[in-house]
Design a protein that fits this description.
The chain has 106 residues and is mostly helical. The chain has helices at 3-20, 25-31, 36-43, 51-61, 65-70, 77-105. It has six helices and no strands.
């Protein structure tokens, strides 16, 4: 992927995060500790943030670095945790079923 395409994708993803936080550009710029001008340039795909800054944004916003870089829709640590809890519940149910079958065939 070319740099311009990468900048545009990351800018789009950061703007999505801003929208999800229900913040205007100036407010979001303050929230992620950057200037309004820098944020606008990133959203437009004209500039990029350093990888360190992208990790800081991920931590501050509770969106994954994976989402910022790729747009993958599992976006927050909370959503990842919810999916892991759900998977654990399914595994426990499967184990219960196997134990019931084992007890019946005994």
């Amino acid at each position: 992927m070319e740099s311009k395409e990468t900048y545009e994708l990351i800018g789009k993803n950061i703007d999505y995060i801003r929208e999800q936080k229900n913040m205007k550009v100036p407010e979001f710029a303050t929230y992620i500790k950057t200037s309004k001008t820098q944020l606008i340039n990133v959203i437009k795909g004209e500039r990029g943030f350093s990888i360190t800054k992208l990790f800081e944004i991920a931590e501050t916003t509770n969106f994954s670095i994976n989402f910022i870089l790729t747009g993958n829709k599992i976006t927050t640590q909370e959503e990842i945790t919810e999916k892991l809890v759900l998977a654990e519940e399914y595994i426990k149910k499967a184990a219960d079923i196997l134990n019931s079958v084992k007890a019946m065939t005994g």
